[in-house]
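Hi R.,

Here's the chain you asked about this morning:
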Amino acid sequence: MSAALRPGLLHVIGAGAAGLAAALEAARRGARVVLHEATPQAGGRARALPDGTDNGTHALLGANPAALGFLEAIGARDRWVEPEPEALPVYDLATQRLRRVALSPALWRDPALRPEGLSAQAMLALLGAALPGRGGSVAAAFARHPALLRGFVEPLTLAALNTAPQEAALPRLAAVLRRMARPGACRLFVARDGLGPDLVQPALAALERQGVEYRPLRRLRALSEREGRATALVFSGEDVPLGPADRVILALPPWEAARLLPGLTVPQRHAPILNLHFARESVPGLRFIGLLGGLSHWVLLRPGMASVTISAAFALQAESQELLAPRLWAELRQAALAARLPGPWPEAPPPCRLVREQRATPLHGPDQPPPPPPRRLANLALAGDWLDPALPATLEAALRSGSRAARALA
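And the predicted structure, written out as tokens:
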């Protein structure tokens, strides 16, 4: 009997992206898997809300092979589509100018598709920032190139690291820049209908086909360990003893992992993301627009909905929906009219829903502690987007860590 097919159960704790990937990888290797989730539904911080609305806008790049491979494995790859296959529309609210910016450096030979401020010296700064081994902040690396920082580097940093350039650690952005240099790496993909139908539901269906038992509303309250092994899982009203061949993957956010494993070194500072979803008439097609010079950072338009995303939204954590909606709708409307998107786009904001993720990601500053080893105990491994030693906390990092944890225990 191979190691992957040995007897015993694998308990995956947490059905976010990392837990879904861990359960799928382990099941495909022949393990008997039970997937436990504390909440009523799977997805974690990449989930759909009970009414079907996404908690936030999640985009993938061609530079995300783990995420795209996971979508292929669950039969959902064709559900993620390119809303802007030519170049990304970027609207500057300060200058009221709309530009089309190519994400791929290979397309910057066309002056019309270059980021603003991309001089020869700025290009050298961008190449230098991608080199491994450099420290400091993103803002310091581009201090001599403010136009490129404002128009390209800052939006990329906010999108990938959820951290402002003044605080963002350059090595994390460097890992993103190196990946973006690969052929096809800058193609941008979003879920056609939403995270529920295009990620979570296909993943759960794939796990069911693999024989994985899914148990929602199962919060792990405590973990018993002895002599370097996990010996029992303590759920509400039930203790689950672990046999010699049983294994555990904790696919949890850092604060939950630290609660269960005292002494674990985890990130202490986190950054919020704010999303406002506006109802709109169902216009076919998807669009994705970047915004500069305002509160909003990204706009995603789907049939029946227009969503605004604000990364690293520290200053807006206390703002009410009533105050935010008119300001964000005005910015969205201005960009939509400039891009000549099909409307209508009335001045008054339509009904909307505000969604805050207060601890969406770790704050990727220079003082972020290095992640602990994934293999915490002899029969227990950690998974989660915060555990990648190089990449920022994204869907790609979460799915990579889940598969890595399953392989470590195989």
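The radius of gyration is 22 Å.

Let me know if you need anything else.
M.
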